[in-house]
User: Fold this.
Amino acid sequence: MSAVKDLIGPAVDRLASDLETLSRQIHDHPELGYQEVKAATWLTEFLDKHGFKLERGVAGVDTAFRATIETGEGPTIAILCEYDALPGIGHACGHNVIAAAGVGAGAALAAVRDRLPKGRVQVIGTPAEEGGGGKIRLIKGGVFNRVDAAMMIHGFDRWILHQDLLGIVRAGFEFTGKAAHASADPWEGVNALDAVIQTFNNVSMLRQQIRPESRIHGIVTSGGAAANIIPEFASALFYVRAPELDEMWALQKRVIACAEGAAKATGCTLKVVQQPDNAYEPMKRNGTLVELFRANARVLGVVESPESRERMGSSDIGNVSQVIPAIQPMVQIAPEGTPIHSRAFEEAAVRPLARDGMLASAKIMAMTTCDLLANPAVVADARREFDAATAPRRERA
Ligand SMILES: [Zn+2]
Ligand SMILES: [Zn+2]
Assistant:
């Protein structure tokens, strides 16, 4: 086994300049979620060249793909790529690095395919992580049905091999009142903006009573047409985040109650706009997979930082981790202290530190995939751990 793994490092090193070019190309042509046409083309051309069987547009998502190499009956291990950018600030989440590391790991495995243990390696292109929920559509489309374990990496300002993610669900509120002249006949009006403001006040009070890891944050999306008209329509959008699924749905109910109370107090009617199908779920930890990844990271001399729950975001990899064993280690691609979604992070994502993180994580993912293919019993352990940790899903009311 270690003989095959020993070939991985040199295989990635031989691809290094191609991978760096790919990473920079994606970085310099930022595309928003579901519009990643160039990135998907470049990545699939690369995988095609390295001998993968390509399926483009899987699950009805144009910019998604699945690339497979098969060496016989055995476990199916998936390596996931993201490649969408952020509006205005481009690749400030470093998804160009995720993409290059993912296809780099895949190509390195393809290079040693004659000596790989039996099984299937899939590199899966998952669009629109930044709010579009691409992985949710791929899950619904059955793309992960036959996958035994999945892994991806994400750029960060340090190495953290497991990072919890908050689940996130939206709650939109549309209040309808009655327009009237704000000076001549205000008593004839029903003020929809007051309902929005009251909702914010209610949520502010609720915030004191919630667990410290949970988050509620919102914006006013419509606040009236003119100051001399009592607003007949006003709306707001809230994000509700919590580290556990049950907590997330329960907290969303409490936020909806804040809006209902505001509607009652102001006499407005309320329409609640929910998108339960697009909720990002918390990351379910899989210690079995994390430990395999860690052992390979140590071989490469990675120095990891302790896990922390201080700076938690959300991602649709959380949803994947709720249906199959999955991990998303954080890889240093920027100097410590660089916040993600910042212009500094965007600049860092093509610097030498990002190249180092990309190449190291391509190697670690490929080595971890080798371990899993060689040891179906460990794949079964990961599944057992996953099953034992499965909490019943709360009804999405
Ligand atoms: Zn992001
Ligand atoms: Zn990201």
The first helix runs from residue 2 to 28.
